[in-house]
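Hi team, as promised in this morning's meeting, here are the two structures we talked about. I've kept the exact order from the run log so nobody has to guess. The first one is mostly here for context; it's the second one we should focus on when we meet again. Sequence first, then the predicted C-alpha cells.
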Amino acid sequence: MRIWNSTEVPFFILMGPVDSVQMQLALSILFFLMYLTTVLGNLGMIMIIRLDLQLHTPMYFFLTHLSFIDLSYSSVITPKTLVNLLTSNKSISLLECFTQMYLFVLFGSAEISLLSAMAYDRYVAICNPLQYPVIMSARHCCALVTGTYVIGFVDCSLSVLSIARLPFCRSNVIHHFFCDVFPILALSCHDTYAIDIIVYLCAGYTLLLSLITMSWSYVSILSTILSIKSTSGKQKAFSTCASHLLGVTVFYSTTTFTYLKPKKSYSLGKDQVASVFYTIVIPMLIPLIYSLRNKEVKNAFIRVIQKKGGSIRQLK
C-alpha cells in the first residue's frame, strides 16, 4: 500500500467486496442479472404508467419518479462495479469518484424524501378521500417531487463538495466497491470532524424529517383503517399502502444501519453487504414489490399488451 503526499493522489483504487477471482466472476454474473432486472423492471414500470391512462394519478406519478431514482442511483454504482469485478484495472479518477459520490447522495437523499411524499399521498387518499383531488392536485404533486430533488441537491452539495476539498495522503485504496462517504473520509490526512458533522447533519435531518412525516402519516392511516367497520373496507384501505410500507421498511433498514451510526463502528464486511443491498438489490425489488402486490399495475400491464397487440394486428 503506497502512502501519498497530501496533494499527490492522482486516482483511487476500489478494492471491491472480494479478492478471489472465482468469487469476482460469480458476483459479476449475479450483479449483472440483478442490474438487468433493475433496468427492465424500472423502465417497464415507467412505460406502463405513462402508456395507461388509468394510472395517471398522483400515486403513480410518484411511483414513476421512484422508479427513475432507483434506476439512476443503481446505474451510478453497478456498471463501474461490474467493470472492476471483470478487469484487473480497479482505478477510478478523482473526478469520476466524486461525481459518483455526488450523484449517489443526490438520488439517495431524493428517494428518502420521495418516500415520505408518497406516505403523505396515501394519508390524504385514506384519511381525506373527498378532498384528495384538491389537495393532491397536479401542481401540488409537481411541487412535492421538485422538493425531493432540491433536498437531494442540497444534501449532496453540502456533504460531497466539502469532502472533495480535503487532501488525501494516507492511501489511495478505497476498501469498498464504490466511492461512498465514510471510506473516502478515512483516506484524508486532515481532521475530518467538521466534515463528519456536516455529513451526519445532512443525512440525519433528511432521514428524521422523512421518518416523522411517514410515522405521522401511517399512525393516522392506521387509526382511520381501524375505525372502518367492514373487513373488506379495511383490507381495501390497507392494500393501497401495503406496497409502499414494505418498500419503506426495506430501504430504511439498510440506509439507517449504514449512515446513522457512530463512525467508529464502521465494519468493512457488514457495511459492504448493506451497501450491496441498497445500491443493487433494493432498486431491483422496488418495481417487483409495486407490481406483484398491485392489481392495478397488473391490469394496466395487460391493457398495454392488448392495446399494442391490437395495433400490430391492425397494421397487418
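And here is the second protein, the one for discussion:
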Amino acid sequence: MEAGNRSTISEFLLLGLTEDPDLQPVLFGLFLSMYLVTILGNLLIVLAVTSDPHLHTPMYFFLSTLSFTDICISSTTVPKTLMNIQARDQSITYAACLSQACFVLIFGGLENCLLAVMACDRYVAICHPLRYTAIMHSELCILLLLLSLLIATANALLHSLTLLRLSFCTDLEIPHFFCELVQVIKLACSDTFINNLLIYSVTSLFAGVPLFGIVFPYTRIVSSILKIPSVGGRYRAFSTCGSHLSVVSLFYGTAFTVYMSSAINGSPAKNVVASMMYIVVPQMLNPFIYSLRNRDMQGALRHLFVRISYL
C-alpha cells in the first residue's frame, strides 16, 4: 500500500497480545470469560437498582450509570477482539478503528467524571447529612450526568476529529487488541504535533479536574470523620466510602500503570497487558467491589434472584 491520505486506507491490523496460534484458544477463553462476567455482573447491578425502590437514591443512581458505562466500555473493545481471534483475522476497517477509539474515549471519560460526581455525593452525605436530600435532588443528579457525558463526548470528538487529518503509510499494524488513540497516532506519517499536544494538554486537564474533584471531597470527608467521637461512628461513616475508594484506586491505579508502562518501558507486549488491566479488569471487578460489602445491594440482588426464579 502506498503512502497516502486517509482515503487510501481501508483497514488496520490489530496484533493483539500474541501471534502464537497455540495461545489463541487460551486468549479467546480468557477474553470471553472476562467479558461475560463483566456483562453479567454490571447488568445485575443495573437491574437490582432499578427494581428496588429502596435503592432509588443518588448514590445508587450514579452506581447503576457507572455499571452501564462499564458494559459499554467492554462492549466497545472485547467483542471485536473475540471475532478476530475466532476468525484468525487481525483486520479492522479504518472507520471501525476510529469509531472504536472515539467510543473508548467517551465511555472512559464518562467513567472518570462519574467517579468524581460520586465522590461529591459521598461528601454531601457525610458532611451535610441533614441537607443531603435537598442538595442531591433528582434534577441535579440528571444534570451532573448530562454534564459528564457532554464533557466526555467533547473530549473524544476533539481527539477523533484531529485524527481524521492524519495520513498513514505502509505500516498499519497496531500492537494492541483495540484501536488505542496513542497507538493509531504513532502509525501516521504526517505531522502529529497537534495530536500529541492535545493528548498531553487536554487529557491532563480532563484527567486532572475529575481527580481534584475526588481528592478535595475526600479530604473534607476524612476531616469530618475524624471529628466523630466514637470509633463505631467513624467506622460506619467511612464504610459508606470504602467501595467507592476501592473503585477509584483500581481505576486510577491501572491508568497510572498504563502511563508508566508506555513512558518508561517501550515493550509493546507489556503495554498491551497494562492496557488490558485498564480497559477490561476494572470493569469486571467493579460489581464485586460494590456488592460484597454492601448489605443494601446484597438484599436487592437476593430479591432480584427471587423474582427471576418465579418467571
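Starting points for discussion:
Confidence is low (pLDDT under 50) at residues 1-7.
The beta strands are 11-14, 91-93, 173-174.
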